[in-house]
Structures are given as structure tokens and as C-alpha cells.
Design brief:
Among the domains are: 3-51, no CATH class; 138-258, Phosphorylase Kinase, domain 1, CATH 3.30.200.100. It is 47% helix and 19% strand. The protein is built from seven helices and nine strands, in the order ααααββαβαββββββα. A hairpin with a 2-residue loop joins strand 1 and strand 2 (85-86). Helix 1 packs parallel to helix 3 (34-53), helix 2 packs across helix 3 (34-53) and helix 2 packs across helix 5 (92-134).
Length: 259
Amino acid sequence: MNCNETKEIIHGYLDGEVDPVRSMAIEQHLKDCPACAAAHRKQQSLRTAIAQGSLYFNAPKGLEKRVRSAVRQASKAEGRKEGGRQRWNWNWRAILSPLAATALLLLIALPILNRHSADDQLAREIVAAHVRSLMTDTSHLTDVASSDQHTVKPWFTGKLNFSPPVTDLASQGFPLLGGRLDYIEEHPVAALVYQRRKHFINLFIWPEKSGSSGELRTPQGYNVIHSNHDGMTYWAISDVNSGDLREFLKLAQADPHQK
């Protein structure tokens, strides 16, 4: 992937419309090319600014009628002058009241829309990391390959500034395969790898941030679900069915002494 190719499809990449393989190639190019990385950041900033400033809302009922009435009254007053100044008969209260209501709706809706937009972008990163771990062969899956939680958990010591919870769920049908370091939202995270029959599950964990949880997404054909629990954020992704993935996430967050 070179600079010209990246520029041609960067907008599709930002919209999540690029296939996983090409997404990986773009991500690698952005890491290697400062100029394209800077252009990518500018596009992200521009999209954020547009999303925050150009939201569309339906006009309140009756606004058109009140505006037309105000225009007619202003037209009738045209030509009548007093003291060299034209007099206007605008009903400002009738016009400003619905505008104030619209502004209030913007203030309420904007944080919600921004949060969902951020979660959607994060879900695309999760998909990219999952696909990257499965590319070529399973050698990308784990940096430490072990079904022993007492081997996997200590492996992260010194590599992360937090200690991820690690539990083997083999008795519940989700055996632990190992773990690795990954990179999400511009910071390192723990990635635990589990298996469900012939399917791999990636579980990404990092210290909790504010945001929604529990919503199931299906970007690019994968099931993705996330939740905040006990000070940690969990994102699980796989091609297993949604019921199995929900059950897995619930088990992964449960108190190990209660399993």
C-alpha cells in the first residue's frame, strides 16, 4: 500500500467500508508514513467537527406556519418608515421559542450521538485487531500460549499498567488458549484468546472508561459485544453465534469462586 492508494480509499476506511485485509494494509502504511498519518488525523478531526456541528433535526410542528405569518406581517410593514427607519412587525417570541427547543434537543442528543459514533469506531478497531490475529496462520493469536491462567496472567506483568483478570473457562466450553498484547485506541491492551469448538474468541480488556455497554454489533459479519465490569472494559469478538458470545462474556466477568 503506497501513499496514492491510501489517499484513494482513506474515506472508505474511515467509514468502515474497506475489507479487513485492505484495512490492515492501510493501518500498516499509516504507522510507516508520517504524512499519511497526519492526513488521516486531519480527516478524523474534520469528520468529528462536522458530526458535532451539522446534525439535522426536524423543525417543530407549526414552525413553518409561524415563520410564514411573520414574513407576511413584515411584508405589509414594508415601505412604512418612521424617523427614517423601516418598522418591522416580527413576532420574535413565536420564532425564537421553537429555535430554543431545537437547541435544547441538540444539547441532549449530541452526547448520545457522539458516544455511539465513538463506539462504532472502536468496534471497527476491534474487528481489525481480531482479523489481524487470524491472518496467515494462528501464530499471531498468542504471545503466550497456555491454558493455565496462572501462566497467562503473570505474563502481562510489566507489560501493562494494569492486571487483567484471566480465567480458564474450559469446563464451560470455552477453553483458554493464551494471551497477547494488542493496541486499541492508541494504547496497549490485554488480548485473551479462547476457543468455542472450531471458533476463536478474542477478549480485549483495559481499565474502564465511561460509555455504553451490552450492545451487540455485527460489523463485517463478526459478532462484537462489550461491557464494563469491576473497573474493566471488556470487548469480545468472534464468528460464534451471538448467544454463545453473550454467555462467554458473562462467564468471563463472573467471580471465579462462583463458577
